[in-house]
Amino acid sequence: KLFFTDYGNAAKVERCDMDGMNRTWIVDSKIEQPTALALDLINKYVYWLDIYLESVEVVDYQGRRRQTITKGRQIRHLCGLAVFENYLYTINSDNLSILQINRYNGTDVQALARLDNAKEIRVYQKRTQAAVRSHACEVDPYGMPGGCSHICLLSSSYKARTCRCRTGFILGSDGRSCK
Prior knowledge:
Strand order of the largest sheet: 4-5-6-7
Mean pLDDT: 89
Structural class: mainly beta
Radius of gyration: 19 Å
CATH architecture of the largest domain: 6 Propeller
Shape: elongated
Number of domains: 2
CATH superfamily of the largest domain: TolB, C-terminal domain
């Protein structure tokens, strides 16, 4: 799944399949300017910053069990969001420090380090990298991912895929080749 925020006409947090299909709103009320998003891939939670409402909140992948982690004026100066173990990590855009926030109760906020001009933060950990034996976008014997001539996108599961074309090309009737 792909998770993303939007604060155009109607602010929301959404999810869809990797090919853009099955788009679903998971948060669409009491939300104004969601500017950063982080996923807890193990427990299946979505965290986001709302700089207008000055809050950090969380829901499960279906948009249920919504909770406010922390609220206050300091939120409007945060950008980027990552989750690792018991903490959320974000950047304070005023002083460019990395902040660590307890993700269960919003307390225990600590400045860890300062950076020059940081706007985003990511945490990489081996446990969160899914091990898949095979998937629909694997390279075929002709060197084409999923048998697609240009772009292969996983669909509703790792066993399904959708072929797409680069700009200026259209997908052929076979659903795989681009012309």
